[in-house]
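Quick illustration, no need to memorize.
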Amino acid sequence: QVHVVESGGGLVQPGGSLRLSCAASGFTSDYYAIGWFRQAPGKEREGVTCLSSGDGSTYYADSVKGRFTISRDNAKNMVLLQMNSLKPEDTAVYYCAAQPLHPQVYYYCSGYGRSRSGYEWWGQGTQVTVSS
């Protein structure tokens, strides 16, 4: 089975930065999409960002555009989420999700990769709290 593990959450002051890591193992495909989602208390889980390994396409929700950056750390076989200029409204449990892709799939992060239904494997979540 595929295992997805995210880490790096914690408490940070408004305007501060935090870096989340996502490690996935058990893939049989070299092509995949990695998505970050977040869920605040009483709210639905929403898409934050997406990275597709095949075409390198990315997606950012408008609420985080210009502040969050998704990237790959090839040496450690991880996907990173760098979060800068954090706001109290960023407080949520953050989830990493993984979806193996057919090598001929393109623009995944422009479609299904933005939705929860686009991912088969999920991590346990890590808490991010932005508060003074």
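The two ends are 40 Å apart (CA to CA).
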